């Protein structure tokens, strides 16, 4: 279960009647004035939200948000266990670039687990891991693996931050031109860039396993449904891929083909 990762602008309307209705509803729920809510929303506006207050940064600044999500996961797990259903929640902390970010959020998750277990009397087996989406996180994977029991490579964000481009803008503005004129062999947001992004993934795998040999490794992103990318992930030693539902069949077939080629 990934803690909140997308930036606020992907959740909230930007302007118009929808934003007005939201402000009125929030004002009513919070027992505040509409102007106070509007001022708060305006204060949260960012010039570059994809690299702003999102992922673990949101949880670090507002730990109660991470605590709320973790508590909900553990409460649901406790209900399942009580009903005889085996569950093993894996809490994934996103956008980590500094080991202290992961440690702080992991402490919040553990505290939430302890509270739920104490309240319910039910022992809940769980793991804490992180998404490798920031180049610095990939390069310091050895430190992150001291806390993280698994890595999931967020290939969309890792590609975006490695190339230093906005996926939405790049695909609309210049990636097609680059491909047509031979500057790039393919769209790096569709097929993994093995030379750059792929190298970061390999470094993270090596350093992560050096610290924790049994660490689980996977990828989360649209690359998980691309056959060429899946073959690369299999080659470098990832254990699983996660992608959108429409790509699952292709991903399973590509994974099977990659495994057969190795044999």
Explain what the structure shows.
- With 263 residues, the chain is α/β, with parallel strands linked by helices.
- Helix content is 54%, strand content 9%.
- It is built from 13 helices and 5 strands.
- The chain has helices at residues 17-30, 34-43, 56-61, 63-82, 99-120, 135-139, 141-144, 155-163, 167-173, 175-180, 197-211, 227-236, 248-262; strands at 90-93, 127-132, 150-154, 216-220, 240-242.
- It has a 5-stranded parallel sheet with strand order 1-2-3-4-5.
- Strand 1 (90-93), helix 5 and strand 2 form a beta-alpha-beta unit.
- Helix 1 crosses helix 2 (34-43).
- The longest helix has 22 residues, at 99-120.
- It is globular.
- The model has no long low-confidence stretch (mean pLDDT 91).
Strand ordering within the main sheet:
1-2-3-4-5
Count of beta strands: 5
The fraction of residues in strands falls at: 5-15%
Structural category is alpha/beta
Topology pattern, helix = H, strand = E: HHHHEHEHHEHHHHEHEH
How far is the N terminus from the C terminus?
33 Å
Rg, please?
A: 20 Å
| Unreliable runs | none
Which short descriptors sum up this protein?
alpha/beta; 9% strand; globular
Summarize the structure.
The chain is 54% helix and 9% strand. It is of the alpha/beta class. β1, α5 (99-120) and β2 form a beta-alpha-beta unit.
Topology:
Elements: H1 17-30, H2 34-43, H3 56-61, H4 63-82, E1 90-93, H5 99-120, E2 127-132, H6 135-139, H7 141-144, E3 150-154, H8 155-163, H9 167-173, H10 175-180, H11 197-211, E4 216-220, H12 227-236, E5 240-242, H13 248-262
Parallel strand pairs: 1-2, 2-3, 3-4, 4-5
Helix pairs in contact: 1-2, 4-5, 12-13
């Amino acid at each position: 279960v990934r803690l909140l990762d997308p930036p606020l602008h992907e959740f909230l309307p930007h302007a118009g009647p929808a934003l007005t209705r939201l402000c009125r509803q929030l004002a009513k729920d919070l027992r505040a004035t509409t102007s106070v809510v509007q001022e708060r929303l305006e204060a949260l506006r960012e010039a570059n939200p994809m690299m702003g207050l999102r992922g673990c940064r949101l949880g670090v600044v507002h730990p109660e948000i991470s605590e709320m999500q973790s508590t909900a996961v553990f409460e649901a797990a406790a209900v399942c266990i009580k009903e005889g259903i085996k569950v093993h929640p894996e809490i994934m902390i996103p956008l980590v670039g500094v080991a202290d970010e992961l440690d702080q959020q992991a402490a919040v998750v553990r505290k939430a687990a302890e509270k739920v277990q104490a309240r319910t009397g039910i022992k809940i087996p769980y793991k804490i891991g992180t998404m490798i989406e920031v180049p610095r996180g990939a390069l310091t994977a050895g430190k992150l693996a001291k806390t993280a029991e698994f890595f999931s490579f967020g290939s969309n964000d890792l590609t975006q931050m490695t190339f230093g481009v906005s996926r939405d803008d790049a695909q609309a503005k210049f990636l097609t031109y680059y491909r047509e004129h031979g500057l790039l062999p393919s769209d790096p947001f569709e097929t993994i860039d093995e030379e750059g992004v792929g190298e970061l993934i390999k470094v993270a795998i090596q350093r992560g396993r050096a610290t924790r040999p049994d660490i689980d490794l996977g990828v989360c992103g649209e690359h998980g449904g691309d056959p060429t990318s899946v073959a690369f992930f299999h080659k470098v030693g990832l254990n699983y891929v996660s992608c959108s539902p429409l790509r699952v069949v292709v991903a399973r077939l590509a994974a099977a083909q990659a495994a057969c080629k190795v044999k």
